[in-house]
Design goal:
Layout: H1 9-35, H2 58-61, H3 72-75, H4 83-123, H5 136-181, H6 187-215, E1 221-223, H7 225-235, E2 243-246, E3 252-254, H8 256-274, E4 277-283, E5 287-294, H9 328-338, E6 342-347, E7 353-360
Parallel strand pairs: 2-4
Antiparallel strand pairs: 1-3, 4-5, 5-7, 6-7
Domain HAMP: 105-157
EC number: 2.7.13.3
Transmembrane segments: 12-36
């Protein structure tokens, strides 16, 4: 049966609609010839009788056949207003509609599979490849999609190896500089050099961790998100910038290390720029929402989205004492998107900034 199915979208469409048209015409013809009024033919005359002559009295004793008569309103109706004509058109329309519905479902299935595979690839680069099934066009598209996925994996693996080499090559001279820094006799100069080296090491660590986290996503497991938030708030406890947590939530499937890093970045930002924050955990059937409302000055409206770009900082001086490297929010959003969720910022009234982290309740693929 599978060999009889056409191999291309064009052939499938052509055969499908051709069969639909033939079926609609056949059904319409059956209805028309079955229900259409037939002209009554009188019984044959004696001279027209074929075969041996009937016995005497046969024609007189035989009752006439029953006659079928349509109501006068039907027989007198104009051709386009005849009920049988409309019934024929209705049957044709129903057959064509059914054929179109089946065809749409049949032909859209490969595209739906491709769409689902693209969404899965965006969330996890290690998702299984797309099975090359369906018509020729769908199989060719699946093959191209799988090749693209393989190339992306190869490029990221190559970048990971490059990062490992860069990490070793840069950390080694930084370590030597730290040792040589101790030989500087002037205390002020030695302290400034140590601060610069610490800043370089911090920038290198943040950049490598950001790239490494994109290349090697961890597996998911059941995580108590409320306990994680409370634990991080306790670890970051600072009387000058307190973090107050409220609300509870059921456990979700998540990447523990990545989600801890995401929340830690958000809470550190709230302490650094917002002088503390209120953290609200809002649980629902479909998702878990975490709102971090700080007490800082907020952000300009035109920068609420720009701050998620890697290495973007509002403070152009790039002083780590005031702004870090500019990767914290970018890392946090990437982790949220990897979980199928979202991270957004909006200004509160009359002051403050609210970071909203939404994590859907979904099991790992």
């Amino acid at each position: 049966m599978r060999r009889l199915i056409p191999d291309t979208f064009f052939a499938r469409l052509f055969v499908l609609f051709f069969v639909g048209l033939i079926a609609s015409h056949l059904l319409g013809s059956v209805v028309f010839f079955t229900l259409a009024p037939q002209a009554h033919r009188p019984p044959p005359h004696r001279s027209e009788w074929v075969g041996p002559p009937p016995p005497v009295g046969h024609m007189q004793d035989r009752p006439p056949p029953p006659e079928f008569h349509f109501p006068p309103r039907i027989l007198q109706a104009p051709p386009m207003r005849h009920p049988i004509v409309w019934l024929d058109q209705l049957i044709r329309l129903l057959v064509l509609a059914l054929t179109a519905w089946i065809g749409a479902r049949w032909l859209s299935k490969p595209m739906s599979r491709l769409s689902d595979a693209a969404v899965a690839l965006g969330q996890n680069l290690q998702s299984p490849p797309l099975a090359p099934t369906g018509p020729a066009e769908a199989r060719h598209t699946a093959d191209a999609f799988n090749r693209m996925q393989a190339q992306l994996r190869a490029q990221i693996d190559e970048r990971s190896r490059f990062l490992a080499a860069v990490s070793h090559d840069l950390r080694t001279p930084l370590t030597r500089l730290r040792l040589r820094c101790e030989a500087i006799e002037a205390p002020e100069l030695r302290e400034r050099v140590q601060i610069d080296l610490a800043e370089m090491n911090g920038m290198l660590t943040a950049t490598l961790d950001y790239l490494r986290g994109q290349a090697q996503p961890e597996g998911r497991q059941l995580l108590d998100i409320a306990a994680l938030v409370h634990s991080l708030a306790d670890d970051l406890d600072n009387p000058q910038a307190p973090l107050r947590v409220s609300g509870e939530a059921q456990a979700i499937h998540a990447q523990p290390v990545a989600l801890k890093r995401c929340l830690n970045n958000l809470l550190e930002n709230a302490q650094r720029y917002g002088n503390g924050a209120e953290v609200h955990i809002i649980d629902s059937r479909d998702e878990c929402c975490i709102e971090i409302h700080d007490h800082g000055p907020g952000l300009p409206d035109n920068q609420l989205e720009a701050v998620f770009a890697p290495f973007y900082r509002i403070d152009d001086s790039r002083n780590r004492q005031t702004g870090g490297v500019g990767l914290g929010l970018s890392i946090a959003r990437d982790i949220a998107l990897a979980h199928g969720g979202s991270l957004t910022l909006h200004n509160a009234q009359p002051e403050g900034l609210i970071a909203t982290l939404v994590l859907p309740r979904q099991r790992p693929h």
